[in-house]
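pls read this stuff:
=====
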Amino acid sequence: MNSSKYYINLSNDYKMPVIGLGTFQIKDLESMKNVLTTAINVGYRHIDTAFSYSNENLIGAILKEMFNKGEIKREDLFIVSKLPLNGMKPDAVEYFCNLSLTALQLDYVDLYLLHFPVPSKRSDKDKEVIVIKDGVFVTDNINLADTWKAMESLVEKGLTKSIGLSNCNSKQIQRIYDSARIKPTVLQVECHAYFPQHELHEFCKKLNIAFTAYSPLGCPGFPEFALKDWGVKDLDKPKLLEDKILKEISKKYDKSPAQNCRGLYVMEIRHKKYDKKESTDLNNFADVILVYIFYG
């Protein structure tokens, strides 16, 4: 499948490629170059990153090289970044968006998301996305509707074409939606066969908000990441790709478990070298787990 052919229309009439490449956990240049160049060469056009991933500079350097070589054009890509928790004060929103744009070496992103609906106290270090004091996450008292107003100004200034939300529940979405001049176009949340989010998906459909899933494979490397980066021990996370039913379905339709998961939800992260055909061949199978791709 040439994934660049598959798009959906957002509520503001911009097109978003259905299959996206997530870059969470990729923090070294060699791995990023392998993943990003391979993905683009096989047809990926939707690239997802965030300020808090600390890898926007890597993506920017690689994309600049590809642009200069004529391997891809900026207008052919859909690039997503996210406002960090420590950037949610209204007067900080544009500042942090510009930090991302500078790192990415871009004039604009196609979609800018409010990463988490939990504001963190801001320290004197921009990279300190969350502040921990005595083992407790220090939050800030910020009205999300005010943060959203500042994000609306990013659209008006041409720093992003669309704005959206991530990791929000239906009540949070509704509050922002009701007060917004520029409505959220996208919601990005964790979603996979073990956490299908049916009710939230239906809620977004009613508001004409595109529903994007991250970790469709269940984020199999997350316990190791949480231990290394956050010091979280003994994180018991179910191993979706080893699920018995999923393996049976995969055998029946001659697809890998990962392909079946990507048939279910489509924002993926590929950190290691992978089979190009497996990653993009999502055609010709259907099963009981195949529920929604964005709008359903």
